[in-house]
Amino acid sequence: MMEEVPTSVLSAEQCHLGEGPTYDVTTDTAWWFDIREGRLFEAHLGGGSIRVHALGRMASALGRIDADRQLIVAEDGLYIRSLADGAMTLFCPLDADNPTTRSNDCRVHQSGTFWIGTMGKKAEPRAGAIYALHRGKISTLFPGISIPNSICFSPDGATGYFTDTPRAVLYAVPLNPATGLPRGEPEVLLRHTGIGGLDGSVCDADGQIWNACWGASRIDVYSPQGERLRSLSVPAKQASCPAFVGPDLSRLLVTSAWQDMDAAARAADPQAGCTFLLEASARGRAEPDVKLA
């Protein structure tokens, strides 16, 4: 059964490819990206103000370093961004010598290790990978990925999740909770069938996996055993990624996109690319800071 929960538009600025939402509970600020247009959105939820920052490059995700700095994952590398003035300094390159790839789905593990997904700019098969930035060094975790998505972690840090969207499989990987690095091989948790595809995901405080089903106008909630528990309606067909927001982390921010839609498809989906807030009655978790050393 599809649930219709109270839903509002946080931002009516329609993203070409909205992605990478995260929330800083210390400042009540949500952040997300329009990957294709190289834009970073900053929304102060309590005050209602929204700013849009031009990055000059495609970027897809960020991790909070501390109160003054963020780590931005961009198409050519990782950048330290100053919150005071928006200045970006290259921390380390990533696929900088490969102009066919860009970053995609990413998330910070409780240990401070950052999992980073890359893909071909035209979704070329197996052109991307999932990497880990652990204590300042990048290693390859899973090569040959076409469209990395659903990177998230169980509350105890002992399990990581990811998908390669065209494969329609959500994988679970045993992790070392102290490092966020794999200590075993990925296993199939669930196989997606029906309309849409597995896109971005986030785990709540109970270990449930909240997944944006791209092309199906919904968020699906799965148990740690892979059982679908809920489906929440989203007023845009291409929902792309969720994040828990608000002082009690009970609301769900959902990004969306109008990518690959022609004029007729956009007319039929007038809120495509908007960013939404769902009153999901969830029990979310605060995102950890990324550790650089």
From TrEMBL:
Binding site for substrate: R102, N104
Domain SMP-30/Gluconolactonase/LRE-like region: 17-257
Cofactor dependence: Zn(2+)
This protein's UniProt keywords: Metal-binding, Zinc
Active-site residues from the entry: D199
One Gene Ontology molecular-function label: gluconolactonase activity
Annotated coiled-coil segments of the chain: none
Co-factor note (free text): Binds 1 divalent metal cation per subunit.
GO terms (BP aspect): L-ascorbic acid biosynthetic process
Binding residue positions for a divalent metal cation: E19, N149, D199
Protein family: Belongs to the SMP-30/CGR1 family.
Protein name: Blr3207 protein
Top-level taxonomy: Bacteria, Pseudomonadati, Pseudomonadota, Alphaproteobacteria, Hyphomicrobiales
